[in-house]
Amino acid sequence: MAAIEKDIVPLRPTGNMERFNIIRNHVKFYNNVQVSATYTIPRSALPSPDLASFTHLIHSALRETLQSQPILNVVIEDEGTPQPKWKRAETIDFRELVNVTEHDPKSNPDAWLTEGHKEQLDRVDEIPVWRVRIGVQASALSATSTTLSFVLAFYGHHAIADGVSCGVFHKTFLDAMNNVVAKPSSITTSPLFRPSSSLKLLPSLEEVAPLPISIWFAIKQIIKAFFYNPVDPKNWSGPPVASSLPTITPNLRTFSLGPAQVTWLLQKCRENGTTLTALISVLTARKITEMHPSYSHVAGVIPFSFRKFSGHSSRAMGVFVSSVTPYFASERNPPRGYISCASTSADEPNQTNNELWESARQTRHFITAGSASPKNQMVGMLRFAPDFKGFFLGLFGKKRDHAFEVSNIGVVDGGLGGSEGKASFDKVVFSTGLCVYGDPFSVLVASAEGGELTVSVSWMSEVTEEKEGVALCQYLEEWMSGLAEERR
């Protein structure tokens, strides 16, 4: 026994960002983040055309995925304390983490994905903090076609995965699936997996990333967070945070652009010196101020990957993210520090796109400047927070910080165009379950290499009216499709 215990590698402490997210889930202020992908695999990968064989195939690919991604093998100990800990799961039972449902992969995913967002990531000290939801048609399992399609949605606790990492899960799972397809003898009927005692977690963001904070930046942020933060009466950010813990009802609407549309839209962005994320941010701010004309200011939040500073590889799973906060104004001549999101009047139709592209360029410059250095990042401020739980509970009844979030995880390579007889995926959807104090709207973007680009718009019934969420989604689809169809 002593020899066995000596071989066990102790897990590193939780990082500040990880603790922030662990305690946020503990007080039920947040639930999960999700990326799904629609897979196509050769039917020959199934030992027999039934649900049991399909489930064994999924479990076998997951087994290999977990061997490649250490963070998927942990549970959380002392979740509700100031110092929660990672603990290696002794045995993982995929039956507790994987839910196979009857669902047509070609159908609209909105309601199906929303069901997964409603599932709580609980029992964190017993089972890992992620779930996999799979949609497949029973009739397709016994069909005579040479391939089988299914959709797999990965829901992760934000302490183990940011949006990019959820996409990394799919790239890792795809590699694992292709290994299983190439070697059918590796398929096992056991749903149990025992993590290696030599499992070693990748370093946290704070362990490897420089996070310098100037004294004046720190003082300013501490004053805003705990003492005095003046309210801009022109700023709209939705209703205040509820005075007590509400029941959250998530809503999700998505739309997709085809490969040709994506190519043209990205070309338009390049021609106008901006990015898709910046363009979507301006369009979102514009629509919100149109829906709330008595307010002229809105703030957005735009997450960006911190991997360029932390050194984590493009195949690492964890939470390696920071964000920037641009401010938008519906005035033609906005105040200092604001970017105009003004809509052009009906008698000046030719100016519409010129103003839009100029605002998108300004937004791109703001994002570039705010993400150019690890210095004075909000993620670096977490080390000064004495009590995360007290911070969250202190948000009850307060004004929300932002009107919206725009997060783009970019292109996820699903192996399209690869060799025949191999697994691949397309139709990537990025979405979030939102949070109690969260922004009224979340606009999340993901693309499949060589496939579609999908935009999801999420909101909470307790915060945002359905008609507004639907209107924003339709507005973004109309504008993005329209710009993609423009020809020079």
Automatic annotation (TrEMBL):
InterPro entries tied to this protein: Alcohol_O-acetyltransferase, Atf2/Sli1-like, CAT-like_dom_sf
Record-level Gene Ontology MF annotations: N-acetyltransferase activity
Xref: PANTHER family: ALCOHOL O-ACETYLTRANSFERASE 1-RELATED
UniProt protein name: Alcohol acetyltransferase
